[in-house]
Amino acid sequence: MPRRFAKVQGPTVSQSACSSSVITASSLSLESLALGHYQLQLVGDALEFTPAVRGVAASRIVLFGAPVSAASLVEWFQKVELPDQYTVSVQQAHPALPRSIELRFDTLLTAEIVEQLYTVAKQHGLELVYQHAEVLLDVPGVLVMDMDSTAIQIECIDEIAKLAGTGEQVAAVTARAMNGELDFAASLRERVATLKDAPEQILADVLSTVPLMPGLTELCQTLLSKQWQVVIASGGFTYFTRALQQRLGLSATYANELEIIHGKLTGRVLGDIVDANTKAQVVQQTAVAHQIPASQTVAIGDGANDLPMLAQAALGVAFHAKPKVQAQAKAAIRQGSLLQLLNLLGAWKA
User: Fold this and answer.
1) What is the rounded CA–CA span in Å between residue 198 and residue 108?
2) CA geometry: angle at 256 spanning 170 and 268, to 5°?
3) Of the residues 84, 138, 146, 183, which is catalytic?
4) Please, which pLDDT band fits residue 8 given cuts at 50, 70 and 90?
5) Shortest CA distance to 254 belongs to which of 222, 299, 224?
6) Can 148 be counted among the known catalytic residues?
7) Cα–Cα distance between 28 and 262 in angstroms, integer?
8) 142-346 to CATH, choices 3.30.1330.10, 3.40.50.2000, 3.20.10.10, 3.40.50.1000
9) Catalytic residue among 106, 138, 148, 197
């Protein structure tokens, strides 16, 4: 039987010092509420938010993506039996993002409760992430990003191959490699070999039209302004990562270097391949080099070769990822812009 009443028990606030806000299930969004932290009461289809103090948490849930409606929150509290004590925060991690909702708990949630919450979120077209620990936005940290299909919207090797006349052959290998069906290093060498004797100019042609992932620029600007180290570690090519580093002011980039002789690609890669293990090492080495604790590391990517770095980071996020990656990552952003990563970083200012 659905629960008809739920009350959030948080730190007490004098009722003379603040006032409550009431919204109903028919409300379109939470835009009428001030950003901040609340106790919440649900009676019927009405939600009453009373200002509260944001406390220390053992776990938290972040609900984001599309604007969060009151109806979705009402359904949450009616259908899911949450612990008695938690606080609710109405947040906006960046002016370009819709408001998000954070629930902070003094205990860990059971797998059953988390699954119920995911189900309701999905029904309302929302993203939900459950976290045991927070990476803090206002404390210097490390972000290591994949490039292809994460920082940018294309797979560079596929676009190069199209211009070289081997597009279908290379795209098929790329898809299998990103799904974890092939050894990445071997598959990369196989794909690059098809580019033998292609003119160097095709790299410039691809670069000139590379579409950045929506939200990339704003994400980098925000993190760099907070003294974060923002890095790309890619199984792609230095020709493109270096251009992104210059354009975005990135701290460093790591990728594979195509051999070019007399203005033509040789079909070979110089040096060791930047593979899945290299990416994971970049997370650790960047943190150590800048004296940043492991608890302040984040990695984000979409392919199977990103899994080791997602596991290495305190917060590993699958972004628009293959099913295998979503299943194994600590968190996932399944739709929308890269800027939404800010929703997953704790202690932003209300």
Assistant:
1) 56
2) 60
3) 146
4) very low
5) 299
6) yes
7) 61
8) 3.40.50.1000
9) 148
